[in-house]
Design goal:
With 96 residues, the chain is mostly helical. Helix content is 57%, strand content 4%.
Length: 96
């Protein structure tokens, strides 16, 4: 029987999203709005208590300016390929 590792992939997705949110200054409510769920529902997904829906990933990836494949590959891969979205500075201004 093939081994199944959704926890690893979901964990990586959650970590990637948290890091992208920190980098861009987006809040949970901002990301939740993109996919039409509440901030509480997004929080449950980011904590691993609720599963992601595949149909939500394209909108989330688009919000960060990455592809779904990049989103699932992890933050390090996005950084290595110079595809990170612009960072927000302490003043809230976008840093390039």
């Amino acid at each position: 029987m093939p081994s199944r590792e959704p926890e690893g992939l979901e964990s990586q997705l959650n970590e990637t999203l948290r890091l992208l949110m920190t980098r861009t200054g987006l809040r949970q409510v901002d990301v939740a709005e993109v996919i039409g769920i509440t901030r509480a529902s997004l929080s449950q997904r980011l904590l691993g208590h609720s599963a992601w829906k595949l149909d939500d990933l394209p909108a989330v990836a688009d919000r960060f300016g990455v592809t779904v494949c990049e989103l699932l590959s992890g933050y390090a891969v996005i950084a290595q390929t110079d595809r990170l979205p612009p960072a927000k500075g302490a003043s809230g201004q976008t840093r390039l």
